[in-house]
Amino acid sequence: MPRPSISAVVVAVDYRLAPESSFPAPCNDGTTALRWVLTGGGGALPSPPATVFVMGDSAGGSVVAHHVAARLPSRVARLIALQPFAHSLRQNFVLNNKHIFKT
């Protein structure tokens, strides 16, 4: 039986961390990486992607992912936040008039 397939590219960004690099350095790194993907990855990708999801894990990664998605909202279909945000930062976030995170 043939296996189902999906055309997808997963890019993990090794963004700068504190305390060596302060905010917004991680968000700048994420935005640079997203722009690289959106232009086809300098020839590394077969073509620029039609749909982009941005994901962050834990408090720091989710905050960076949110800021990256907010900087290029017309290019990001959805934000996926795994174990999102520190308790003090919980609130509703909207991207392209869609709730992307709600507590």
TrEMBL record:
Molecular-function GO terms, alphabetical: hydrolase activity
PANTHER family linked to this entry: ARYLACETAMIDE DEACETYLASE, OS07G0606800 PROTEIN
Annotated transmembrane regions: none
Domain Alpha/beta hydrolase fold-3 as annotated: residue spans: 7-86
Source species, domain of life: Eukaryota
Species for this entry: Zizania palustris
Pfam families: Abhydrolase_3 (PF07859)
Protein name listed in UniProt: Alpha/beta hydrolase fold-3 domain-containing protein
